[in-house]
Write a structure and sequence with these properties.
The complex is a heterodimer of chains A (387) and B (175).
Chain A (H helix, E strand, L loop, with lengths): L2 H15 L9 H4 L79 H16 L24 H14 L7 E4 L8 E8 L5 E12 L4 E10 L2 E11 L3 E9 L8 E9 L2 E10 L2 E13 L2 E10 L2 E12 L2 E11 L4 E13 L4 E10 L2 E8 L13 E3 L1
Parallel strand pairs in A: 13-16
Antiparallel strand pairs in A: 1-2, 2-3, 3-4, 4-5, 5-6, 6-7, 7-8, 8-9, 9-10, 10-11, 11-12, 12-13, 13-14, 14-15
Chain B lengths: L3 H9 L3 H23 L2 H17 L10 H21 L6 H7 L12 H6 L4 H11 L5 H8 L3 H24 L1
Helix pairs in contact in B: 1-2, 2-3, 2-4, 2-7, 3-4, 7-9, 8-9
The chains are: A mainly beta (387), B mainly alpha (175).
């Protein structure tokens, strides 16, 4: 069972049996009187004001899937804002049933479902990917353990901002020019060095039953190809996509498995790396978006080392703040800390940066990293500084 | 998160509403740490009540040096450990004695939770850490202070426990 699902089940089951109401104690009888502490008793305790949840839909909010059958081979419905124009394609195809099978990648929000395929394939191909250049977590000798992971945090910081500010499509359905594959899409993404990259997916789909669709195809980046097989499930409350990406001609002992789920306002990825069928590394990423607030939680486990961090964009006193909390540890060493994030604009270079002000125990330091979005954040909203 | 120092001040003045707030904020943690040790929900309920009783009786002794939650959970943990030790010594089968030990279980309905199957494969330490993390949603470094272990160790134990439970789930589905 996926880790987050197991955690959720445990939480729900155990919370069910916790007594809801407090014990009915008579405090007058139990608490002894302390003459020194008598003070004027207030009639109410100031509670923090509950935030009103806004119902603003961002571009990253999940579109509820209604499976409909596409009207013809090559006609693809998409929710992206820009599409290529070729809407009719005639292809000789022996499996006419494919014309009526919904394409899980383009019939719904393509970005959401293409990304996990790209992710699994990126890792399989072996270059900089969603969880870093090296899947093994090595703890270095810097004054802070975070020194070795700030690029990873920065990657997700960019992902958080970018995912919430899509002004352009990053997924484009195209006509397949490979006869063995029915569908093709092109997707732009960026790697941990914030360099933009283009990927192409070619794939076929087959329908297992009303709830399950299987996929099989390839991902191409530069000259590298990675194979993948996948399964898409649509249940009443959640949608799940499982992708297994591999480099060999057929699925063998070395592969990357990615599970991606969408449930309400929450998206989660679980990425597992297998070598010789043994799990050597795993990552869990959760993205929550509620109104104007959002959060990415990341946990990466590699043998005995664990890094967890959470990036939150929250409304505090009518101003948005971005905060990061983290924990890093293994049996030998550990560290936890907090960061405030500032977006800084360099007028001379015409460039934006993130400044991470970290505090861990008695150590404070600031990291400066590149920001992908080269647009001004809403200065009323974010903690924004111009250099 | 409520201001515990302020809450404690009010509880010392027997403010029932302040106790309401405190209970709401701490009930999952208190139950988790007890349940992890005794593994019986009804015993955990009773010990939870005892914990809050003891907390109220000792409220004037709380001096604010340690975090309130840590102080409260230490009371809970100690009560659970005392119960566990007392009952672990009893090995003879004596129906009358068993009735004394488990007086009210017979008249309470018991619906087995699937999660109990998972928790049963863990040792006490693993259960504590898992429940405090998952049910109370505490951070690892908060749990580390409560259980008195280094942060890295707590993170490692938590992940090991998750893997154990996941493995059980796989074996179960393959069976």
């Amino acid at each position: 069972m996926r880790k987050s699902k197991l955690e959720k089940q445990l939480r729900e089951d155990i919370r069910k049996i916790v007594p809801i109401e407090k014990p009915k104690f008579n405090l007058e009888e139990i608490i002894p009187v302390n003459e020194e502490l008598k003070m004027h008793r207030k009639t109410s305790f100031p509670l923090p004001v509950l935030r009103t949840l806004a119902m603003v839909m961002s571009l990253a909010v999940v579109i509820i899937l209604g499976i409909t059958f596409s009207g013809g081979f090559g006609q693809q419905t998409t929710t992206t804002t820009t599409t290529t124009t070729n809407t009719t394609t005639t292809q000789t195809d022996t499996s006419m049933t494919q014309t009526t099978i919904p394409n899980p990648i383009t019939d719904i929000n393509a970005k959401d479902y293409a990304l996990p395929i790209i992710t699994a394939s990126q890792l399989s191909i072996g270059f900089s990917a969603l969880i870093g250049t090296d899947l093994s977590l090595k703890l270095g000798d810097g004054p802070l353990l975070m020194d070795d992971y700030i690029d990873l945090v920065n990657y997700y910081m960019n992902a958080l901002e970018t995912s919430l500010s899509f002004n352009q499509s990053i997924v484009t359905p195209l006509v397949s020019d490979r006869i063995e594959y029915a569908y093709r899409i092109q997707m732009s993404s960026f790697n941990i060095l914030n360099d933009s990259e283009i990927y192409e997916l070619y794939y076929n789909v087959t329908k297992e039953d009303d709830e399950v669709i299987k996929m099989q195809g390839i991902v191409i980046w530069n000259d590298s190809e990675s194979n993948f097989v996948g399964e898409y499930e649509n249940e009443s409350e959640e949608q799940k996509l499982t992708i297994i990406a591999y480099q060999s001609a057929t699925l063998g002992d070395d592969y990357i498995k990615t599970e991606f789920e969408i449930e309400d306002a929450e998206q989660s990825y679980q990425i597992e790396v297998y070598q010789a069928k043994e799990l050597i590394s795993s990552s869990n990423i959760q993205i929550e978006i509620e109104g104007d607030e959002s959060k990415i939680s990341v946990e990466i486990t590699d043998n005995d080392t664990v890094i967890q961090f959470e990036i939150k964009k929250e409304l505090e006193d009518d101003t948005f703040e971005i905060k990061v909390s983290y924990e890093i540890g293994n049996l030998v060493t550990s560290e936890d800390g907090e960061m405030n994030v500032r977006i800084v604009y360099d007028e001379i270079l015409d460039k934006y940066y993130y400044f991470y002000d970290v505090k861990s125990d008695d150590i404070t330091k600031t990291y400066q990293r590149d920001r992908v979005l080269n647009s001004e954040p809403d200065t009323e909203e974010l903690n924004f500084i111009i250099l | 998160m409520p201001d515990y120092l302020e809450l404690v001040k009010r509880i010392k003045l027997r403010d029932d509403h302040a106790f309401d707030i405190l209970y709401e904020d701490t009930k999952y943690s208190v139950f988790s740490i007890i349940f992890a040790i005794v593994k019986d929900r009804y015993v955990a309920e009773d010990l939870m009540q005892d914990t809050y009783m003891k907390m109220l009786q000792a409220i004037h002794q709380y001096n604010g040096k340690a975090k309130f939650k840590t102080w409260l959970l230490t009371i809970a943990k100690n009560l659970a450990i005392d119960y566990y030790r007392k009952n672990a010594k009893i090995t003879t089968i004596d129906l009358q004695l068993d009735e004394y030990l488990l007086p009210s279980h017979d008249d309470r309905s018991y619906e087995k939770l699937e999660s109990e199957m998972y928790l049963n494969v863990l040792d006490i330490e693993e259960r504590q850490i898992v429940l405090l993390k998952v049910v109370s949603e505490l951070k690892h470094h908060e749990i580390a202070k409560i259980v008195g272990k280094p942060l890295g160790t707590v993170m490692w134990i938590y992940n090991k426990a998750i893997k154990k439970m996941q493995k059980l789930g796989e074996e179960d589905s393959n069976a």
